[in-house]
Amino acid sequence: MFSWSRSSHTPVSAPVAGLNGTRTHPGQTISRNAHLSSYLGHHVLRQSTRKVSQDDTTYDTVFQTTNGFALIIRVYLPTDSGRAPSMTLHGVRASHDWLDIRMKVIGYEPIASDQLWRQSCIKLGDA
């Protein structure tokens, strides 16, 4: 997994306690803090994720494709915990059924709408 250089940024820290990668029960609201903790404390994602906004809404995560290319996905988590996050490939042009022409992820059903996001009961780190 890719790791950001420690000298070029301040590492993102988040509580990891209680993270188990499981879904919540239907109808149970997941707090915004729980979403952020699951994302920033995720055992795979935490080393390759950094905050890119002044507030805590926008993060970049670097990942490696199966054929060895490194890609950056920019994740925006609205301050309203009921709103779906948006994910966009950053700094690249690609073609895939899940991407629109602006490289926004549109084909992943759990984040396709606010209602689907709430119904999915998935924490951000598992999305």
Describe the model:
The model is unreliable at 1-23 (pLDDT under 50). It contains 2 helices and 4 strands. The chain has helices at residues 32-40, 114-120; strands at residues 49-51, 58-64, 70-76, 86-90. It has a 4-stranded antiparallel beta sheet, with no helix packed on it. The chain has 127 residues and is of the alpha+beta class.
Overall pLDDT: 83
Ends: how far apart? 18 Å
Question: Into which percent range does the helicity of residues fall?
Answer: 10-25%
Compute the number of helices.
Answer: 2
Read across the widest sheet, the strand sequence of neighbours is 1-2-3-4
| Biggest pleated-sheet summary | 4 strands, antiparallel
The Cα radius of gyration reads: 14 Å
Short description:
The chain is of the alpha+beta class and 127 residues long. The protein has helices at residues 32-40, 114-120; strands at 49-51, 58-64, 70-76, 86-90. Residues 1-23 have low confidence and may be disordered.
Features:
four-stranded antiparallel sheet, 2 helices, about 130 residues, alpha+beta
Map the helices and strands.
Layout: H1 32-40, E1 49-51, E2 58-64, E3 70-76, E4 86-90, H2 114-120
Antiparallel strand pairs: 1-2, 2-3, 3-4
